[in-house]
Amino acid sequence: MKKTKRWWSILSICAALILSIALAGCSNSEKASEGKKGDVTLRILIWNNNPEGTKLENEIFRAFEKENPGIKVKTVYAPYDKFNDKFLTMSAGGDQPDLVWIQPAAFGQFVAKGLLMDLTDRVEKEINKDEFLPNVLELGQVNGKQYALIRDASAFQMGYNKDLFDKAGVPYPKDDWTWEDFLEAAKKLTKVENGKIVQFGIENFYTNELLVENGGGFVSPDGKKVIIDSPESIEAIQFGRDLIHKYHVQPTSAQSQGMTNMFLAGKAAMRLLGPWDWADTAKNANFRWDVVPMPAGKAGNVAAASYLPIGISKGTKHPEEAWKLLKFLTYGKGQDLQLNTISAVSVMKRNADKIESMKNAPENAKSLAKTLKEGKTVRNAPYTPEYAEIVNKIQPVIDNINLKNLDVEKELKKIADQIRKEYNLQ
């Protein structure tokens, strides 16, 4: 009897050991399985919250994940007008995203606060600079150091309704047209019925485009001199104001109230369009349309650069993985994928001739390719820490000029002197 109990005890101990080994094996197997699922999740802060746009952005992220097992990408959203505050708040709270889209006006501020990783060495070692289109890498540099890479770089063009041009007997605009040509066409395309304007020549002409095309700006490229009251800037803002109040070819805020897109509604013959607008226009326009470069002011045939810098947060816990994603988006396969997913123009020379064949590209998309290949885009946002604040103080003045038909020179000189004093600028 004692012998039997002894053997039973030995068997119990052996069974326990076997079970323990088996459980340990299962536990290790589970851990290995968890590692395969993705032990790193990268968060990227973006401002695109359009359902269709988000879906297409995610297609590119999923392609990256497929090429990089073990790395997942999660988007974090903030609205465009609250975006910079969101990034600053997250950074102050020690909750920085791994990567961040950057509004050019805030670029200098982010660098000055030490929020972005210096990518200079990585770019020197791993990037062939000759593969980029002209002026692209410089868009991500502050004081000669690389703090971001550019996912897409393009420019606004003037979109126009061919049917309305034909109906009014107005020739289609040419690639080398001027402000005078534009104004003449806009007048002919503005339609009045019973004393009321029912069709406008243009929906809206943006401030940056007006300033750049005429050689003006808010401040000088080095950020040291206020130039919003220069003759070129005054003339540009005057032209924009006169489109509304003198020539009546652009609607007042009251006339456009309740209309989110007068161009698509057939109530405006022209509208500024970027490649990011092509898909929506192609889907919703019930008329024939095309694009041409922006009309030239005193500065000639140049365009304000519209581009998306992406940086890596200095506080990321996954710098190597974040760099892999950044390279994929701005230099690697993502550059090829974005052409026909999110209609974002590639910054690589290898894709320069593919703009014309992009999904939803209008007939004259080749004019945009030419502008980019010839380096005719102009950076219009100095990378200085105060620039975003300065713009936020000047733009409301311009908006008020347009709203109330105020004296342009008087109002711009007043705000210019205020900025000089407040920020100790020339």
From TrEMBL:
The keyword Hydrolase does not apply. Keywords: Cell membrane, Lipoprotein, Membrane, Palmitate, Signal. Transmembrane segments: none annotated. CDD domains: PBP2_TMBP_like (cd13585). It comes from the Bacteria. Residues 1-24 form the signal peptide. InterPro entries: Bact_solute-bd_prot1, SBP. This is Putative ABC transporter substrate-binding protein. It comes from Parageobacillus caldoxylosilyticus NBRC 107762.
